[in-house]
Design a protein that fits this description.
The protein has 304 residues and is an all-alpha fold. 74% of the residues lie in helices and 0% in strands. The protein has one domain. α2 runs antiparallel to α3 and α4 runs parallel beside α6. The radius of gyration is 23 Å and the shape is elongated.
Length: 304
Amino acid sequence: MPLLLQTFNKFCSKLDNRHPNRHGSKLASFSLSRLHAFEDDVSACLNHLLLSTSASKPLSFHYLLQLLQGLLPTIHQSFAKLVVDLEYPVGRWRADLVDGYLNYSLNLLDLLNSISFSLTQLGNSRVSLSYALSLIQSSPAMAVSRLKPIALKRYSEGLEIRGNVKDLKKGCSGEERAIEKALATMEGIGYWICGIVLSGCEGDATAYLEMRRLASGVTVPAFKALDSVISAVVAGKGSVPEEVEEVNVAVEMIIGGSGEAVEEMRKRMGRLEKTVEGMGKEVDGRFSEVLDGRTRMLDVFRHS
């Protein structure tokens, strides 16, 4: 079970009656140190990704998979670790913190669902191309007439993102301040990740640009550095993944009469199929984890 889910399950039931022996300035100092530790964990993952990110390379499903497999779980686990270290279980959170987390999880579910739908549509396009390719020996003319480049489409128009985490009012504790700041960071980067992935699946930069705006409050320097490179990639290379572009080039070559491109297209289609299937499994896994964490948090308050 992911650490985030363990936190919401274990620490709500076991730590509600515990009160740390830290007071006053010591408490504030401890909370700040835990927040810095959270930001350091997130920065380390961002910097690792930055090493494999270049403005001269187009987006690829392989890279998008790295975001889903590496960065998204890391920010969730680091946030959970912060909650554990602060000994501040969700049962003691203020209502605005609870609302912030629940809104974030619901928005993330919507975004992941949109990604899943776009991947399904891409899969349908790939199947159509595979069928056309299967006709190349028996009926070349029919095969060529059915071969069409993959045209990615935007399906997420009108997707509504519920309110961002707001600054807490005066009088909140040091733990609450640290959790609020970390939650805002987790929220912004989580939306940003889904925006990039969704833009890649749709071949349209709109989702990334919209989610980038929602992440404008993230203050981690490593995030700003990585986003600047991604922004340059999208502006210069577009948002259609490299694997799709490669297949489309092969389609055009076959239509143009190049028989040698048939085998190359089969190889490229195989790579695309494998990558898209991996993306689909990863999206399903992230969706299940977020839904489970949300359900566990709601259970805490149902039984309190």
